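Mods, move this if it's the wrong board.
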Amino acid sequence: MARFFWVGIAIALVLVSNCVDGSEGYLHHFNETELSLLEAHEAAASALSFSGRNNPLLVGLTLIQNAAAKGAVCLDGTLPGYHLHRGYGSGANSWLVNLEGGGWYNNIRTCVYRKKTRRGSSAFMEKEIPFTGILSNKAEENPDFFNWNRVKLRYCDGASFAGDAAHPTAQLQFRGQRIWAAAMEDLMSKGMRFANQALLSGCSAGGLATIIHCDEFRGYFPRTAKVKCLSDAGLFLDAIDVSGGRSLRNLYSGVVGLQRVQKNLPQICTNHLDPTSCFFPQNLISSVRTPLFILNAAYDSWQIQSSLAPPTADPHGYWHDCRLNHAKCSRSQVQFLQGFRNRMLNVIKDFSRSNRNGLFINSCFAHCQSERQDTWFSDNSPVIGNKAIAVAVGDWYFDRAGVKAIDCPYPCDKTCHNLIFA
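Not the wrong board. Structure tokens:
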């Protein structure tokens, strides 16, 4: 089994790498201390996606050398970076740019902590990372994009590549927008300007960044190029939590204010809504002009744990077991989660009417399904109508078929790779 040590993770994380069927899920043991559930989950899920596999492709880190001159730096002032694996053959002029996720930081204290991790400094980033799922270089693992130029842009700002501010006293740089622009410019100089096909993708905070930057990405290419976007686990809802409050809105409000995100949000939204509302994808997706595919679990694990039922909204721990393991949810809790699914389906109604857009909303307790091999494309991948996620995305991108796949409600789908935390 390959072993990967995640630099900058400040918690003990024990991985159980046995693959089990969808009804039992994937078991994670972690000590929930200073690191967010999202970071802990991401480390575990990433490791599970390639544990037990032989010789996963490892791709080195490239720092963007001219970024500092543009003020495009990580939280601590270090250079941003990406991992690039070159395409070949029919994919030589096709580019897939994947935006890394990793949560958001909304106050000085947490940002000071973050700048000493891989999420805020390239000094702590892994020098090599495995490319799996949509980034894999093997046709049997990634049938449509395996021989493309594939890029993973590292996330070291904390505002979905959308902020542009600084806090000199705390020695913090919030330069996500500049990092995005510097990376695009660098990649264009390395051949991306010749692309005849391009796909912008991202998971979690990177999925939100994909929605925010989708039309901007389209603008880098000639009109003759086929350019589309894929947001994985990025459909964060402005939902009411279990206490009747709005935990995620409170977080986003801090992020938008601290990192001055407003000026980089689409004006079509900020002209009629407040900036925090325009950081929520539900208020952006219908105005994205570039073809967009939304891949999301109807019962997104991160949203349940950190937005719907975070400990701050559940001081008596009524939701503790349920939020970590869906099998331990009471009937009333499942009913609450069904309401969340219904809200998600309502949010995508207008979006789904466009023939250019695509959907894959499965009724799983999961988060980020395109970058993990087991959920992207494998013998027992999640399916809707016998179509795996990789096949659905490929059919949509290459116009082989329209894809508007919406699962029946929990617990009907037995193909899920549900995440269970303990």
